[in-house]
Write a structure and sequence with these properties.
251 residues, alpha/beta, Rossmann fold
Length: 251
Amino acid sequence: MRFAAIGDSFTEGLGDEPADGVTRGWADLVASGLARGESVRYANFAVRGQLLEPIVTTQLEAALALSPAPTTLTLNGGGNDMMRPGVDVARLVRMTEHAVRRCVDAGVRMVLLSGADPSGRLPFGRTIHRRGVVLTAAVAELAARYDVVFVDMFNDEEIRGPGYWSADRLHLNGDGHRRVAARVLAALGHPATAHAVEHAPVRRRGVLAEARYYREHVLPWLRRRLAGRSSGDDRAGKHSEWIPVSAMPKV
């Protein structure tokens, strides 16, 4: 199997940094899970902060140009678009369909993912949630029409719990990435029990904690938007060529 992943921070693995500090994430865990049963080569072109257009053009074309070509490709994108004012969800669907058709025509097995829903704890979360509902439903319909695998993390109620999220409330933590990996492996026909954490009692966030959250996470994001910059500027995907995968412990 040759497994390629394209997307943004969700697929890059931001928030899952084990003891060695190297970003891992669900796609790395899926590659390792697949390698327990067969020889696997893996590439990951995902870049944090990227909008859907460069994902389904630059990243997708780079993945399809690999030699030999991928046998399986995962796509998630649109989360960063939905945080921008005036986003055109119908355009996101059209771009996703373009990517699906490119993979179908190339004979590459495609897996579409909807990202987990972070909106319950974010500023302007209701707006983001409404957009996510529309996009997820459209992508699900698209997957059914083209008969491609669809992993719906947006409607996964379990992963919405705070135990699956990083301090920035936007990116999954290691437990969140493990749950996504298990769902993807199961969708690909590899036995995997969906990872779950024991939920601690929900505590009300105090004023000081909220002020610290806005200072450390929200304001830097706003400054980048105002400056026209992205967290992924000058970054490249972590594995832009095939690498061999050694099996890791079960996710």
